[in-house]
Amino acid sequence: MLFNSGTFLQFFAAFLLLYYCVRNHLRARNVLILAASYLFYGWWDYRFLVLLLFSSLLDYAVGLGLGLSREDRARKSLLIASIAVNLTILGFFKYYDFFLESAVAVLARLDIPAHLPTLRIVLPVGISFYTFQSMSYAIDVYRRQIEPTPDLVDFLAFVSFFPQLVAGPIERAQHLLPQFKVSRRITRGMLEEGVWLCLWGLFKKVALADNLAPLVEMVYDHPRPGVAMTIAGTVAFGFQIYGDFSGYSDIARGTAQILGFDIMVNFNLPYGATNLREFWSRWHISLSTWLRDYLYIGLGGNRHGRGRMYRNLVITMVLGGLWHGAAWNFVLWGLWHGIGLAVHRWWTHLPFRSGAGVAAPQAAWRRGLAWLATMTFVFYGWLLFRAHSWDQIVALTGFLGDFILPPWAGSYLINLALFTLPLVAMQWWQFRRCDLLVALRLPPMPRAALTGSCLIAVCLFWEKAKVPFIYFQF
Amino acid sequence: MKSHCYAFTVKDLLPIVGLPLVPLGLFALFLHAGAALRILPPPVAALDTDRTILLHQATAGRQRHDAGTILIGDSSCLMDVSAPQLTTILTSHGAALNLGTLSYLDLNAFAALLRRYTAANPVRPDTVVLLMNPEALRRPAAEDYDLEALERFYSQTDDCPPTLSPLLCGLGVEIFRGRLLSRSVPIPLPGSFGGYYGFTHDLWRYLSSHQGSAVDPGRYDPAFAVGNAEYRLARTLESASAVFRAAVPAGTKLCVGITPLPESFVLANFGEVRGRLLAGWSQWLKADLALARLPATMPDHLFASPTHLNPAGARAYTTLLAAALQGEPSTRPQRPKLQ
């Protein structure tokens, strides 16, 4: 079920009615959330509910086992079993065909004919998200950061909570699970925030990202777009993926707020970052913190000298890239960011740069220059991310020196401006006020005009709302 | 244990949910009133490739051109013949204007298009060339959607397509798209047409500057071409041909032709089949000239798709068409030369 569909609006309206009916029964509420979440997920393909249930039951059982076991070796074995099974499932559904096809391609280059059977496996929606969420629970219990939950319904509802099930944010048990155990108080402020987040998220997705999608395709499917269009197409993609994914995260947070739940902020004005480290503290925060806490620190983090730290950064980002999809361009994108982060870390450790860290340089011109350099790096990364193949990456990079301009460049720029400027303007406003909810601070009339305008734009472009969210494929 | 409580009243809820609806309601009112009172410009719902071409040709058909040769027909007429090239070759025949459409319209619709053209242009054309592809000749009827789009354009009414919910139509979404969006914002075209023409506005400009002719930017791959070898004239074509004939102004020659198919796409006897089809159709149309000298097939490399020639193919075909028409003396009154 897509947030940007009439089906979801009907589902959510019916759910709210039932939610109101069970307001005096905590258990019934969690059962209702669980049932609705499974319906929400099963609407796409009910057969994959088995996978979701299995993954959840596994980590629930591992959590209980970790809670009962006092012996370190047994605890470690349980954790390894959980991680191995989770990663095997994820690996099979997401990466089996990819690795097989890559192996065949490598053998073919070596003139060794190979016919390995690919299975054309359908990727279960959201598998990367709920697997990571479920796994983090087992790891946190193992690290004794949280107590295992004995309540199966609470745990199943935590893993499958429909607002964030298929495209995050990847919640931590520490933050979300306790919310299922206590009574929630839904205030007027939460409702205001929830409605605004849903509307703004839909606006970003339906009115902006979905209109940028054909612009991106025009450039990335063009045999010779030239430098200006390659840059414009990559800028369009940078805003498309941001509008699409942050739009989903906003709707997820908004719907959760309306139910009285709090979900973490997943995007915090990433295109305002003045260095790469800051970018990753603002972009897909739930994944970057997951990778930091469970992978980077697991690999040793920065505890074993500079060299190991740089290596760990690169490994973490390469695996983070691979998490996005079974294709080499995602690996390359991860490598690009890994190297970028390592270079940035090296730069900040230079003697004359001590203490710079995440903090932005002070002078405005230096901040501007740092921002420009960071965005150039990030947006070239989007080119790697969006390209279909290595050949296309080479070709598009080559076009950066090709000064041809197609006759439709003017129309392209009109569209690009029209569908990016509202987002840029809002981000600028939020950035200046250091407040993601700055729109809610407006007096009633201007706020009504703003929310009304967003609603109008959503309605005007709603027909295109069948476009699925980009991150569904991850 | 209590599950959750609502720390607000219904009175609190109303401004949160209700206030954004006020601008939406006002906007809907503005659109409907603007359309009803004709404050908004008339709809030109050129929102995709098909409709941009259809509405461009319909618009061109209502404007004054005083063309000597009118090309009319299905998408093969649009793509296979270059009107500017034909104008250059047939200098004595006056300018050529292509009114072919990408959407498949039937001969009744083409007749209506031609009638509107003759009403808007007092100087009657010398020749009307009707060109259709063998694939189109067996189709019993046009797509209702395309005919409705054309009708709505003529009657200046707004389109509520089935893909749009009645609620959104009620909010005036179709009025906004047809009367404001399509006019003010170029809309990207999908696929190979997008790569070649770019946006709706660019395609419109291209058609205007090329006298209504277009180019199919695709590439024909015989390996993926599938078709039905049974070529015939649809029964409905006979009555529609009579309607079309009646729309051709008196004194204007009607030439009819069947556009070519790729050599590898058809059976060996296709030339004969095509000859029979052309003879039969020409009889129904009471055509002045059946363009039998035009080739029934052309080499595969000159095609963009099984039914459309590529630019090189269109150049070659236009030359052949010009040669076929050149033999025919012009009946058009010569304009006095300016001293």
Biggest sheet architecture of chain B: 5 strands, parallel
- Spatial strand sequence of the major β-sheet of chain B: 3-2-4-5-7
Largest interface: A-B, 51 and 41 residues
What's the total count of β strands of chain B?
8
State the share of residues found in helices of chain A, binned by percent: 55-70%
> What portion of the residues of chain A fall into strands of 2 or more residues?
under 5%
Which regions of chain B have little confidence, pLDDT < 50, spanning 5+ residues?
331-339
Task: Note the total helix count of chain A.
Answer: 17
CA radius of gyration of chain A: 23 Å
Strand content of chain B: 5-15%
Structural class of chain A: mainly alpha
- How would you classify the quaternary structure? heterodimer
Class by helix and strand content of chain B? alpha/beta
Please give the share of residues in helix of chain B: 40-55%
Quick one: overall form of chain A?
globular
Largest sheet of chain A: none
Protein described:
The complex is a heterodimer of chains A (474) and B (339). Chain A is mainly α and 474 residues long. Chain A is built from 17 helices and one strand. Chain A has helices at residues 6-21, 26-45, 49-68, 72-109, 127-142, 152-160, 173-176, 188-220, 226-258, 276-280, 285-296, 305-324, 328-348, 364-386, 390-399, 409-433, 444-460, and one strand spanning 184-187. The radius of gyration of chain A is 23 Å and the shape is globular. Chain A starts with 5 loop residues before the first helix and ends in a 14-residue tail after the last helix. In chain A, 44% of the residues are buried. Chain B has 339 residues and is α/β, with parallel strands linked by helices. Chain B contains 15 helices and eight strands. Chain B has helices at residues 10-18, 21-36, 49-60, 75-80, 83-89, 107-120, 134-137, 144-155, 166-170, 173-184, 191-197, 200-209, 236-247, 270-285, 311-326; strands at residues 4-7, 69-73, 96-98, 127-132, 253-258, 261-262, 289-290, 297-298. In chain B, the strands form two sheets. Chain B has a five-stranded parallel beta sheet with strand order 3-2-4-5-7. The termini of chain B are far apart. At the A-B interface, helix 1, helix 2, strand 1, helix 8 and helix 16 of A face strand 1, helix 1, helix 2, helix 10 and helix 11 of B.
